[in-house]
Amino acid sequence: MTTVQSATAAAAQNIAATQNLLADTQERFLTLLITQLQNQDPLNPMDNEQITSQVAQLSTVTGINQLNQTLLALSGQMDMSQSMQAAALIGKEILVPGAKVSVGTGEQGTQVTHFGMELLSNAAGVKVDIMDNAGKVVRTLELENYSAGVHSLQWDGLDAVGATVPDGGYTVQISAFDIHEAPVAVGALTSGRVSSVASSTGGVTLDLGLAGSFLLADVRKIM
Question: If residue 19 lies in a helix (H) or strand (E), which one and from where to where?
């Protein structure tokens, strides 16, 4: 809620500042024009063309300021909309670009964090290598027939011989190929639960705890 209020206040301040600048510009122009008319040389008065030209310049400046005001209002609305979208994600688990997977054992047994992949085109086969902190492959998953897009993947926390792996952090490395065995562009996705949102110079950011902070645009899937 704080993020939404901050975005709204910032937009209102920008619009107010623009309105003040516009009013000040108009007032200074009229003051200058009246002063010129009062102090003009009676033998060489300003002609209509000069006055029309200055009025046209004011109209141009006014139009530009009004356009800027409109753009600032739209920008503020977009920021507020993004903030509201981000606030709705608090408490939800999402997939974002990354290759981390965590394993933990609790009362309900072995728990493995979600992960996934993003394919730019259809893949006939997908290979997922899961590695420990030393870079050793503990498990390889061979998958088939995935369409382009975002997909959630699962790992049961077992190694190649069916034993439960130690608790801790692991890394996934994903490769894919089409029906002609040509490589397909693929990106690994990691999961995290949104704990809070904040505004930054780069946009609205989501805090995923140990998974780190990500922009709202980084969200690939809401679990």
Answer: helix 2-38
User: Cβ(196)–Cβ(204) under 8 Å?
Assistant: no
pLDDT tens digits, 26-79: 666 667 666 665 665 555 555 555 555 655 665 665 666 665 666 555 554 555
CA distance 58 to 53: 9
Give the contacts of 108 (CB within 8 A, at least 6 positions apart): none
The answer to whether 192 and 71 are in contact (CB under 8 A) is no
The full set of domain ranges for the chain reads 2-87, 93-222
Burial class (CB in 10 A: 0-12, 13-18, 19+), 68: middle
- Does 3.30.300.20 match the CATH number of domain 93-222? no
- Largest Cα–Cα distance of the chain, in whole Å? 105
Is 0.90 topped by the overall pTM? no
Virtual CA dihedral for 53, 55, 60, 64, nearest 10 degrees?
Answer: 160
Distance CA 117, CA 135 (A): 20
Q: Find the angle CA(76)-CA(94)-CA(157) to the nearest 5 degrees.
A: 165
User: Tokens 């965590």 sit at which residue?
Assistant: 102
Of all helices (H) and strands (E), which one includes residue 68? Answer: helix 48-87
CA-wise closest residue to 157 among 187, 92, 112: 112
The SS3 call for residue 181 is coil
